[in-house]
Amino acid sequence: MKIAILPGDGIGTEIVAEAVKVLNVLDLPFETETALVGGAAYAAHGHPLPESTLALAKAADAVLFGAVGDWKYDTLERSLRPEQAILGLRKHLGLFANLRPALCYEELTHASSLKPELVAGLDILIIRELTGDIYFGQPRGRRTAVDGHFPGAEEAFDTMRYSRPEIERIAHVAFQAARKRRGKVTSVDKANVLETFQFWRDVVTEVHAQYPDVELDHMYVDNAAMQLVKAPKKLDVVVTGNMFGDILSDEAAMLTGSIGMLPSASLDRNNKGLYEPSHGSAPDIAGQGIANPLATILSAAMMLRYSLQQPAAAERIESAVKAVLAAGLRTGDIWSEGTRRVGTREMGDAVVAAI
Amino acid sequence: MKIAILPGDGIGTEIVAEAVKVLNVLDLPFETETALVGGAAYAAHGHPLPESTLALAKAADAVLFGAVGDWKYDTLERSLRPEQAILGLRKHLGLFANLRPALCYEELTHASSLKPELVAGLDILIIRELTGDIYFGQPRGRRTAVDGHFPGAEEAFDTMRYSRPEIERIAHVAFQAARKRRGKVTSVDKANVLETFQFWRDVVTEVHAQYPDVELDHMYVDNAAMQLVKAPKKLDVVVTGNMFGDILSDEAAMLTGSIGMLPSASLDRNNKGLYEPSHGSAPDIAGQGIANPLATILSAAMMLRYSLQQPAAAERIESAVKAVLAAGLRTGDIWSEGTRRVGTREMGDAVVAAI
Ligand SMILES: CC(C)[C@H](C(=O)O)[C@@H](O)C(=O)O
Ligand SMILES: CC(C)[C@H](C(=O)O)[C@@H](O)C(=O)O
C-alpha cells in the first residue's frame, strides 16, 4: 500500500508530521512518499498542483493531505492560487464523495458556541458531493448581458448542474452510510427555486426505493442552516451538493466548537481517497508548534478505515485520541481551565504513547 | 398613501391582522386594501399571484405581507406553488434589496441556541440581493449532458449571474446602511471558486472607493457560515447575493433564538417595499391564535421608516414592542419561566396599548 503525503502550507507540515508518526507506530505494510502542494508547490515549481504531485496522488492508494493557502498567495491569479490544488485533486482523482463528520467530544462540549445540552453527544455525518455542481459546471466567465435586468451590461456567470448518475452515486453513499448509523438521511436541496435541485430531489427519492430500511427526508438549504443551529442532534446523515455542502459542513463543524478535531475523507468510486483535516492552513500560527494535530491524526484513521481496509488500526487511533483527551491534554484551540496545554508534537507523542 | 395588505396562508392572516391594528392606532393618512396571495389565492383563483393581486401591489406605496405556504399545496407543479407568489412579487416589483436585521432582544437572549455572552446585544443587518443570481438566471432546465462526468446522461442546470449594475446598487445600499450603523460592511462571496462572485468582489471593492469612511472586508461564504456561529457580534452589515443571502440570513435569524421577532424589508430603487416577517407560514399552528405577531408588527414599523417616511411612527411601534417585552408578555415561541404567556391577539392589543 502506498500513501501520498501532501503536507501543503501553513500548519500543514506540522500536523501531517504528527499523523505520519502515528501511522508509523502501527506497524502496517505501507510506504509513504511526500510531495509539495498548494503555495509551497507554487513557490518551488510555479504551480499549486505540479504534474509530479498529481502523478504521485494518482499512483497512491490514498492521499494524506494537510492544508493549503497563505496570505502571500492571495494576489496570484486564480488558476495559480493554492486552493486550485485541492480542486484539481478532487477533479482529477474523481473524489466525488466528501464525508465530513461533525462530532462533539464529551470533554469538549463546553468549547461549542451552542449550549451544552444542544451539542452534547452530537454525531452528524455530512456527505457533500465534491466533483459536480457550480464548482465545475461549464460555461462560466464574463460577458455582455443579453437579457436580465441590465441588457448590455458586463456580467459574470457560472453554471450549476447535476446529472442523474452523479446524484445517484452520492445518494447511494448516503443511504449506505445511514445503514451503519442511525438509519436516517436528510437530503438538502433548494427544489423550490432551482431546476438542478428539483432534479436532485427526484433522483434521491428514486434511489431511496432501494433502501426501504432507511428513513429519508428532504430539507431546503435555508432551513437546514437553521436546523443545524436549532436542533443539530435531530440530524444523522445529511447529503447535499457541492456548494450547499461547502457551507453546511463548515457551519456544522463550527457548531461542535472543536474544528481542530474534525477529519474528512474524499472518496472516489473505488474508495480510494484523500484525507484532510476540516480546518484550514492557519498561516497565523504556522511554525509555532501549537496547532492541533488531532483532526489530521483522525483523518489518517479514516484513511485506514475507508481506503486501506484496516478498521482495527483505525479504531486504535480513535481510541488513543479519546484516551489523550480523557487524560486532559489539550492544544490551545481546545484548552480550558483545569486541562494541560500541550504543543503539536507533544500531542502527537501522547497519541503514539496511548497506542 | 396606500398599503397593500397580503396576509397569505397559515398564520399569515392572524399576524397581519395584529399589524394592521397597530398601524390603525397611529392615526396616519393611509388607506389599505387587502388581497389574496399564495395558496389562498391559488385556492380561490387558480394562481398564487393573481393579476389583480399583482396590480394592487404595483399600485400601492408599500406591501405588508404575511407568509405563504401550506403542506396541502406541496404536490402542485412548481409554477403554481405558494412560494412563486413571493418570487413573482420580488421580480415584478423590482425589489432587489432585502434587509434582514438579526437582532437579539435583551429579554430573549436565553432563547438563543448560543451561549448568552455570544448573542447578548447582537445586532447584524444582512442585506441580500433579491432579484438576481441563480434565482432568476436563464437558461435553466433539463437536458442531455454533452460534457462533464457523464456525457449523454440526463441533467438539470441553472445559471448563476450578476451584472455590474446589479452589484453596484446593492453595494450602495450596504455602504449607506453601514454609515448609519457601526460603519462596517462584510461582503460575502465565493470568489475562490465562482466567476460570478469574483466579479462581485471586484465590483464591491470598486464601489467602496466612494465610501472611504466605511470599513469593508470580504469573506468566503463557508467562512461566513462559521463566523456567524463563532463570533456573530463581530459583524455589522453583511451584504451578499440572493442564494448565499437566503442561507445566511436564515442562519443568522435562528442564532438569535427569536425568529418570531424578526422583520424584513424588500426594497426597490425608489424605496417602495414589501415588508414581511422573517419566519414562515407555520401551518402547524395556524388558526390557533398562538402565533407571535411581533415580527409582522416590526415589519410594519420598517415599512413606516423606509417606504412611508414616518420614522417617528416607526419608533413608536418599536418602543411599544420593547415595552411589551419588558412587561413580561410572551407568545409561546419566546415564552420562558416567569413570563406571561399570551396569544396573538392579546400581544397585538398590548402593543396597541403601549402606543
Ligand atoms: C478552498 C475551497 C476551494 C474549498 C471549497 O470550497 O471546496 C474549501 O472551502 C473546502 O471546503 O474544502
Ligand atoms: C420561499 C423561497 C422561495 C424564499 C427564497 O428562497 O427566497 C424564502 O426562503 C425566503 O428567503 O424568502
Automatic annotation (TrEMBL), chains A, B:
Q: How is the cofactor bound?
A: Binds 1 Mg(2+) or Mn(2+) ion per subunit.
For the ligand (NAD(+)), the binding residues are: 280-292
Please verify whether the record's keywords include NAD. Answer: yes
Annotated positions for site Important for catalysis: 135, 190
Instruction: Please state the span of the N-terminal signal peptide per the UniProt entry.
Output: none
Q: Under which EC number(s) is this enzyme classified?
A: 1.1.1.85
According to the record's subunit comment, the protein's assembly and interactions are:
Homodimer.
NCBIfam families, from UniProt?
Answer: leuB (TIGR00169)
| Listed name of the protein | 3-isopropylmalate dehydrogenase
